[in-house]
Design a protein that fits this description.
452 residues, alpha/beta, Rossmann fold, TIM Barrel, 2 domains, 6-stranded parallel β-sheet, 13 helices, 18 strands, 32% helix, globular
Length: 452
């Protein structure tokens, strides 16, 4: 098929305390499909460290988020210096987000990453998809091009993934996943692709739900059990309960498989009454932990980010889960507008409320505006404090930027126009104090780092 040697590279994940808490199933799928069509491909799993990248390749393919692009640009530059004829190819969420963004032209994307030859958007679901991709890359061997996203037709395809390429196993703080030495072996799995919501902070480029074929999904789960001794699955779906008919079909067919599960759902159980029954059925076959995206405890903020839920809906949904003796993880974002004493007080009150409801983990991240999100594309609503966005190991200049680096330049946040830097830190410290008092703040995260 293709005589050139291909290196498929997963960049280091420096912005997470535990870079192996998830498996990069997207790039594993590309690896599996490339092997299937006869490509000489080597997978370099650099999540925990910068693995040596050989110079003998004819093609270097990266899959990266925006926060990993510093490493990608650095390695691509080195490859071009030592092997000018090598082709560098970039796919993953960063490219998909740039293509979704209303303020990035194709020329801007190509100019921003001068050592990348081919930018690949979309999701590659089959051997035919990947063969067409490689044919296109090789056909335009002397050109820098953007390959626009493929249109997914029909179901979300379940590919039998080859996990033997991974250098590191999954490790996580979850009670469910941490016991590999005692026999638990866990893997990520995507059951359905996409999210129909349109929250303003989210850069998810897939706004339609593509459901998998349940019978093929069950076959893949059993294959992994037999081949890799998998006993638990961490489900990647934004909302595992997004479709009533599909989830009930899955739950009926998954009876007796003897797996444990971690999943996420939308905090709308108080509105979508059927979800409570689905949770009960799911719990009966092994669901041990459920994640809920709350984002904010202020109705004003929730409306502003197009969440389409109220804090009353959210609290009722968490109460329902709490009554079912299931481990609950809540996700929130600090920095969403409006950011003031009132919204931060509501934020802190909700932290203590979660403690009373036995929420086991409350994960608060700072607002990270990624390309393709509404917040990013409408950044004139935020102040131009610094005309830089900082990623690990690199800096990118954006002519519309409004961001400043924090947390050792590993995260990004933006300042609303109506708040000063000093007040931002004061309010943030109040949130950190509440998290600490409620027992949700890990010791190593307690120190309040200064804005760079």
């Amino acid at each position: 098929m293709l005589s050139v040697k291909v290196y498929l590279i997963q960049p280091p994940i420096k912005y997470l305390e535990n870079p192996c808490s998830n498996q990069p199933v997207g790039i594993i799928q590309i690896y599996t499909l490339l092997k299937a069509i006869g490509v000489d491909v080597t997978f370099l799993d650099c999540r925990k460290d910068e693995t040596y990248v050989p110079f003998d390749g004819g093609m270097y393919m990266f899959s990266a988020s925006s926060l990993e692009m510093g490493y990608v640009d650095k390695i691509a530059s080195i490859m071009k210096e030592h092997n000018p004829k090598a082709r560098t190819v970039l796919g993953g969420i960063h490219v998909n987000s740039l293509l979704k963004s209303r303020i990035w032209s194709d020329k801007n994307i190509i100019d921003e990453h001068p050592d990348i030859d081919v930018f690949v958007g979309g999701y590659y679901q089959s051997e035919e998809d990947v063969k067409s991709l490689m044919d296109c890359v090789c056909h335009h061997n002397n050109k820098r091009i953007i390959i626009k996203p493929l249109t997914i037709k029909g179901d979300f395809n379940i590919v039998p993934l080859d996990f033997r390429c991974l250098k590191y196993n999954m490790t996580t703080d979850s009670k469910l996943m941490r016991n590999e030495a005692e026999g638990y072996k866990a893997q990520n799995i995507t059951m359905n692709l996409g999210c129909p919501q349109n929250c303003s902070f989210c850069a998810n480029p897939c706004r339609k739900i593509y459901k998998s074929n349940v019978e093929k999904l069950i076959v893949e789960m059993i294959r992994r059990k037999n081949l890799y001794d998998v006993k638990a699955f961490k489900i990647n779906d934004d909302d595992i309960l997004v479709n009533e008919k599909w989830i009930n079909e899955f739950l009926d067919q998954a009876v007796g498989l003897d797996f444990k599960y971690i999943a996420s759902t939308r905090a709308d159980l108080s509105i979508q009454k059927w979800k409570t029954d689905a949770i009960k059925k799911f719990q009966a076959i092994g669901l041990e932990k459920i994640g809920i995206g709350v984002e904010s405890a202020s109705n004003e903020v929730l409306k502003n980010i197009n969440k389409k839920l109220t804090i009353e809906n959210i609290k009722e949904s968490i109460s329902i889960l709490s009554n079912h003796d299931i481990e609950i993880m809540v996700y929130m974002i600090y920095g969403l507008m409006p950011l003031n004493d009132k919204t931060v007080n509501e934020f802190c009150d909700f932290i203590y409320w979660c403690k009373d409801k036995n929420v086991s983990i409350l994960n608060v991240t700072q607002l990270v505006p990624f390309p393709g999100s509404d917040i990013y594309d409408k950044c004139d609503r935020y102040c131009g404090y610094v005309n830089r966005v900082r990623y690990p190991d690199n800096e990118y200049t954006w002519n519309h930027s409004c961001f400043v680096g924090q947390f050792g330049e590993q995260y990004i946040h933006c300042l609303p126009r109506d708040i000063t830097q000093e007040n931002y830190i004061k309010l943030r410290t109040k949130v950190l104090t509440s998290l600490k008092d409620a027992g949700y703040l890990r010791k190593e995260a307690e120190e309040d780092r200064r804005i760079k």
